[in-house]
Amino acid sequence: MATPKCTPRIDFSTEFGAESLEGKSAIVTGAGGGIGESIARALARAGAYVTIAELNEENGEAVARSLREEGFKAQHHKTDVTKWTDLVSAFTFSPTKTIDIVIPNAGVASNPLIPWLTNTPEDATGNPLPPSQAVVDINFTAVYNTALLAIYMFKKYPCLPSPTSDSTSTCTPPPSAKQIIFVGSMASYRDMPGIPSYGGAKFGVRGIFKAMRGLAPDVLGEGREGVRVNMIAPSWIRSGMTGGLVPFLERRGVVVGSPGDCAGVVLRIVGDAGVYGRAVAVLGNGGSFDLCDDYDGLEGTREILAASKRGAFGDQTTREERKKGKPKLEDLLPNDGKEIGVAI
């Protein structure tokens, strides 16, 4: 097995001034709210031209319009990330079709398994109907498709054509490193008991990240820079998906982060050409840290254990506490089959 291509860990204790993204173009899926919106706003304010690939037309256009009113460059493209044709359309929405930064962010929350087992829909013969595949389709398959499409477009449209030529072989300015930043989760690393669709999908995103950071340096063609591949792994983030759980989490000592915490880490990654193949845990109150998801870091295990010991993930309910009747997270989840606010 080849050693993954990674640069040294990110030191978040050092000051860093992100370079301007002026002239760069970015696509952020699911950017009509939450983490995606914060990332899209941060990129636009740093100078990038941002395409907001969002299914909710009202939300997506509202974000793009507000950025334009602030004097930044943004456009909305109605995109169902589960449809390949919609993804292609989002990538080719720009007349130049040139994209520099791709962030497959779109995701949905998940139902726990137990309610489905308790009240499993059945057909006329008494056999179970298939469970919804929405979480896997959006949180995993769409991410995979977006990443593959990004590589294809990076290769086919390396940069803006020269004004004197219709050929993309003559570029101005010269092509720089393209980037993919995956949005995984701490559920990509830590157990998500009873919620296999979400945990499985997010582990899958981590797998895509680890595979794609090992792409050959000349994947886009001889003489061109490779693709910079990184990932953020948010812990509990305050959003519409987690709002109902925040009081419980805070009682357990969890420092719930904000979408802005995620955007800040993305800016650090995007603006630092020395960051490649890194996965970053995003926590609130400035607690984000490099997971060291490589061989030297024991695939992230070392840093996660250290973070747990210093209380980064709150005071975990113990088996003894459960016997005494103290609530655990799954006790607070609805069992009516509705989507729940689990988004870590």
From TrEMBL:
Listed under GO cellular component are:
cytoplasm
Compositional bias segments (type: Basic and acidic residues)? 317-344
- What Pfam families does the database record attribute to this sequence? adh_short (PF00106)
- Keyword Ribosomal protein among UniProt keywords: no
Q: Which domain of life is it from?
A: Eukaryota
Q: Where is this region: Disordered?
A: 311-344
Q: Which residues form a coiled coil?
A: none
Per UniProt, the keywords (alphabetical) are: NADP, Oxidoreductase
GO molecular-function terms, A-Z: oxidoreductase activity, acting on the CH-OH group of donors, NAD or NADP as acceptor
Which family does the entry's similarity section mention?
Belongs to the short-chain dehydrogenases/reductases (SDR) family.
Q: What is this protein called?
A: NAD(P)-binding protein
